[in-house]
Specification:
This protein is mainly beta. The chain is 10% helix and 63% strand. The protein contains 2 helices and 11 strands, in the order αβαββββββββββ. The longest helix is centred in the N-terminal third of the chain and has 14 residues.
């Protein structure tokens, strides 16, 4: 996944003339708080238009809890005022894989699964989806911004469930799941070049 993100960022940089305020790098502080490594880059496409690509990776277990996943999320944004300041709307895609288990959650429903089952079950699979987003970017200084964004959309997933966190015999395999709801939440620290 890291290689794919690095390749995409290199291609974007190589095909786009870099001038002042035409490239930004960022990290989502919400993912940082959840111990998920993440990075993003955004390039100016035209006046009021930018392309954002972010990637997230959580590849370890914490205190016996399995919350492994990766996510790539490209987004095209339209800025109402000027790039990297004020209000914007976006259209994004998302793709990734997950492996969750041995987690103690309240009994809520997510992607067709009860989160309370995560304590004794393990779920793994892949997902892809589309969404729309709204955000706002506050200028802190010449190069630094803080940005908040929320997205809503549809996700399609194929899920395999196992009866316990370490079991190898599936309860069900490749179950299709459709989800409609929040697809993006970000509070990002941004550096613009």
């Amino acid at each position: 996944m890291k290689k794919v993100i690095i390749l995409l960022l290199t291609l974007i940089a190589a095909t786009h003339a870099v001038k002042a305020q035409e490239v930004a790098v960022k990290t989502n502080l919400l993912y940082d708080a959840l111990l998920t490594v993440n990075a993003g880059a955004e390039v100016r496409l035209a006046p009021k238009w930018t392309f954002d690509l972010s990637g997230n990776l959580n590849a370890w277990n914490v205190n016996g809890h399995r919350w492994r996943h990766w996510l790539a999320q490209p987004e095209v944004r339209y800025w109402f005022c000027q790039e990297w300041q004020g209000h914007f709307i976006g259209a994004h895609g998302l793709v990734g894989q997950f492996n969750f288990g041995h987690m103690d959650f309240p009994n809520l429903n997510l992607l067709g699964n009860k989160l309370g089952d995560f304590k004794n079950h393990r779920y793994e699979g892949w997902y892809g989806g589309l969404g729309v987003a709204y955000g706002y970017s506050w200028i802190l200084s010449r190069h630094w911004n803080i940005e908040a964004e929320i997205g809503f959309g549809w996700v399609y997933s194929r899920v395999t469930s196992y009866p316990c966190a370490e079991c190898g015999t599936p309860v069900y395999k490749d179950k299709p799941v459709h989800y409609v709801g929040p697809t993006k939440a970000a509070v990002s620290l941004i550096y613009t070049f």
